[in-house]
């Protein structure tokens, strides 16, 4: 914690630049900023809210002058990883939500340049107002989450550009000293390829500012995708858990040959249930986890399946799409159950023939969920809020219409190991997850995010009720032991929360030394998000 005199002087200087309304120190605002979906003890002295890159630069210079650390966030909705809470105590939060301009847009070359305050909802509505033929990759996070923030965390979206950070370029970055740099060709004033070429010329720097504390990204170009002439969504279930490895290997092949272009998820029964309802406390007699008998009963509502898959096909025309559909059916017919496809035509008649659909698929959907099958499906670049309801799985009060997991005491911790896209590897990792869940008596709530042709991420969601005494500690103990065992088996997480920055296994090289030199060179006063992805436990 830096000394109080420096803090007060820095706050006065920030008020002169931003105005008093954008330097917040009231208890209510600070309390909100200090709250996440798991236990935190960090004290946040203030929140500062710059509105443009110049103000960010000036704020960083002040932080350097008075040795006052700052922790930048875009919209602060990093639920399950720490929300907007800093890694260390005493950091000033720099909230970039006021920087919400869409700076450039090109329909022909399919890109958009945005500031960190631009949200999924904002870009979706912008494209709709422009009558654009382009669509973006959306995540399962809230519609009002930042596009830039998610990409910098290397988040996962839907569609062919679901590997978010692989489809961005041209970053504007404020360094911890207050200097400004532009990556790729953006550093040249009149470079025509600045927004369409990832690499530029010379060393590629963009990655230094992803999952790091080496700079504040104030601008990013994101590539969009032209809407295909013919889109199909598809869904399938797997009743026999022993065939999961076969399914994984088949899907890997389909991605490697390019038949399935986009990212997709295979979710287990607990994940689907947590989207659809809250924990059945009455039927479970207040006990956790769900008994095998009750789980069997609840699974009937899901058609008896233990795994659920989904995806989308993007085709030039209907003729191509029908061929691709048949190839998918042929590849999966011996493994999965109840494979169904939806295009614009079939989606129109679903409400009419819903009882028949329910009988064929075994899936019972709420009326307002029918559109998700196609018309409002995120594979078509449409943000959705339904997945946020999962965070209320263990709450005994009803899910509110304005969901806010931080405010409502929802417990959520993510553990997200990266796994080779191979059935046997997935099974080994799942066994570690399941065995650890038994120790702490948690339901196993997982999704297999199939991101690239060679790698998938298992997203384990530890969902609980923070209002129940002792649950914060029990949930974190489950997370920590699970992560430890996954690390020992070689399944390292692709993303970390503020609680797990020091939870990686020992390294075998001088990576930490290199990172320490970069940090000390770019941030000599250690004022930018200390402890965030810098693994300082290795070099301090």
Name the features.
540 residues, alpha+beta, Uridine Diphospho-n-acetylenolpyruvylglucosamine Reductase, domain 2, Uridine Diphospho-n-acetylenolpyruvylglucosamine Reductase, domain 3, Vanillyl-alcohol Oxidase, Chain A, domain 3, 8-stranded antiparallel β-sheet, 5-stranded antiparallel β-sheet, 14 helices, 19 strands, 29% helix
Give a verbal description of the structure.
By secondary structure, the chain is α+β, with helices and mostly antiparallel strands. It has 3 domains: 4-95, Uridine Diphospho-n-acetylenolpyruvylglucosamine Reductase, domain 2; 102-226, Uridine Diphospho-n-acetylenolpyruvylglucosamine Reductase, domain 3, CATH 3.30.465; 230-396 and 405-488, FAD-linked oxidases, C-terminal domain (Vanillyl-alcohol Oxidase, Chain A, domain 3, 3-Layer(aba) Sandwich), CATH 3.40.462.10. The chain is 29% helix and 18% strand. It has 14 helices and 19 strands. Strands 12, 13, 14, 15, 16, 17, 18 and 19 form an 8-stranded antiparallel β-sheet that branches. Strands 5-6-10-8-9 form a 5-stranded antiparallel β-sheet. Strand 5 (102-106) and strand 6 form a beta hairpin. Helix 1 (4-18) packs antiparallel against helix 3 (53-65), helix 6 (244-256) packs across helix 12 and helix 12 (423-440) runs antiparallel to helix 13 (471-488). It starts with a helix and ends in an 18-residue tail after the last helix. The mean pLDDT is 94.
In brief:
With 540 residues, the protein is an alpha+beta fold. The chain has 14 helices and 19 strands. The mean pLDDT is 94.
């Amino acid at each position: 914690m830096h000394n109080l005199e420096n803090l007060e002087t820095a706050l006065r200087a920030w008020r002169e630049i931003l105005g008093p309304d954008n330097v917040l120190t009231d208890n209510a605002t600070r309390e909100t900023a200090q709250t996440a979906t798991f236990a935190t003890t960090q004290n946040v002295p203030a929140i500062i809210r710059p509105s443009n890159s110049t103000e960010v630069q000036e704020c960083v210079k002040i932080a350097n002058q008075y040795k006052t650390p700052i922790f930048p966030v875009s919209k602060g909705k990093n639920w399950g990883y720490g929300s907007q809470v800093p890694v260390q105590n005493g950091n000033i939060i720099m909230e970039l939500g006021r920087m919400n301009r869409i700076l450039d847009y090109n329909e022909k070359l399919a890109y958009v340049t945005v500031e960190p305050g631009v949200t999924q909802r904002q870009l979706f509505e912008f494209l709709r107002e422009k009558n654009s033929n382009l669509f973006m990759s959306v995540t399962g996070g809230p519609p009002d989450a930042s596009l830039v923030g998610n990409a910098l965390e290397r988040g996962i979206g839907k569609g062919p550009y679901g590997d978010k950070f692989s489809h961005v370029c041209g970053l504007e970055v404020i360094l911890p000293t207050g200097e400004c740099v532009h990556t790729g060709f953006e550093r040249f004033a009149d470079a025509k390829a600045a927004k369409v070429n990832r690499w530029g010329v010379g060393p590629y720097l963009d990655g230094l500012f992803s999952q790091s504390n080496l700079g504040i990204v104030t601008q990013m170009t994101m590539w969009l995708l032209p809407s295909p002439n013919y889109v199909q969504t598809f869904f399938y279930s797997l009743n026999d858990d022993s065939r999961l490895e076969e399914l994984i290997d088949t899907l890997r092949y389909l991605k490697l040959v390019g038949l399935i272009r986009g990212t997709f998820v295979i979710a287990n029964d607990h994940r689907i249930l947590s989207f659809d309802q809250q924990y059945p406390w009455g039927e479970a007699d207040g006990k956790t986890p769900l008994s095998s008998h009750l789980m069997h009963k609840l699974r009937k509502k899901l058609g008896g399946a233990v795994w659920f898959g989904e995806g989308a096909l993007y085709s030039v025309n209907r003729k191509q799409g029908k061929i691709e559909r048949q190839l998918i059916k042929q590849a999966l017919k011996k493994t999965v159950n109840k494979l169904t496809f939806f295009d614009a035509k079939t989606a129109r008649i679903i409400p009419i023939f819903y009882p028949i659909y329910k009988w064929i698929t075994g899936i019972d959907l709420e009326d307002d969920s029918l559109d998700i099958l196609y018309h409002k499906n995120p594979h078509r670049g449409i943000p959705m809020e339904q997945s946020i309801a999962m965070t209320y799985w263990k709450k005994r009060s009803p899910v509110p219409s304005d969901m806010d997991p931080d405010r409502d005491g929802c417990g959520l911790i993510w553990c997200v190991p990266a796994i080779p896209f191979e059935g046997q590897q997935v099974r080994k990792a799942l066994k570690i997850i399941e065995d650890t869940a038994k120790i702490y008596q948690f339901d196993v709530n997982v999704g297999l995010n199939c991101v690239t042709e060679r790698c998938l991420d298992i997203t384990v969601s530890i969902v609980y009720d923070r209002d129940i005494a002792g649950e914060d500690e029990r949930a974190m103990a489950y997370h920590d032991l699970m992560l430890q065992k996954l690390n020992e088996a070689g399944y390292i997480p692709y993303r970390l929360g503020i609680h797990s920055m020091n939870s990686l296994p020992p390294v075998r090289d001088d990576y930490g030394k290199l990172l320490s030199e970069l940090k000390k060179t770019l941030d000599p006063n250690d004022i930018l998000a200390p402890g965030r992805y810098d693994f300082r436990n290795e070099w301090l």
